[in-house]
Amino acid sequence: MRGTNRAGGTDRGGTSTNLFIFLLSVLICISSQEERTYVRTLPSGAKVVCDFCPPGSYQRSPCTLTRPTECRQCCGGFYTEFWNYVPVCLPCDPCEVNQEEKRPCTRFHNRVCQCKPGYFWHSHYCKKHTVCSLGEGVKTEGTPSKDTVCEPCANGHYAAGPEGNKRCTPYTAW
């Protein structure tokens, strides 16, 4: 019996679709296995296929002809993000001056920092947001990644409140 599949084509009992999905699954499985091993040349010249260590760990000792790869977990403040054969875990970056932690360091990923409120990232450091001058209002609020954008207030408008922090608003008659 023929029916219409979701893509609008004709399904002939699902045989070709099932075969395609099966072959795709096999290819994904094979490529996943290949990405988790590497070839190591021993001092004798013999080649051996070693396992990578999983994310969150490092290689304590490589494999030999008689022993598998030995991995150890990263300690606090250190991480590895990918399958690897590094001899030590990477140290997590500290947050810099005027930064705060957005995502903490774990065994599996580095710490992510962002600029504190009132600052934005500019050429490798957090810089204080621009303060709009007298007669100007905030066009776009600053973010941790972008500076404040100011604009002159149009005729009949003013920036109410402390200098640099307000949008231009129209004068109102009492």
UniProtKB/TrEMBL annotation:
Residues 1-33 form the signal peptide. It holds the Pfam family TNFR_c6. InterPro entries: TNFR/NGFR_Cys_rich_reg (IPR001368), TNFRSF_decoy_receptor (IPR052459). It comes from the Eukaryota. GO terms for cellular component: extracellular region. Keywords: Apoptosis, Disulfide bond, Glycoprotein, Repeat, Secreted, Signal. The keyword Glycoprotein applies. Residues 73-113 form the TNFR-Cys domain. GO terms for biological process: apoptotic process. TNFR-Cys repeats lie at residues 73-113. It is found in: Secreted. Disulfide bonds join 74-89, 92-105, 95-113. PROSITE patterns: TNFR_NGFR_2 (PS50050). The keyword Secreted applies. It comes from Astyanax mexicanus. This is Tumor necrosis factor receptor superfamily, member 11b.
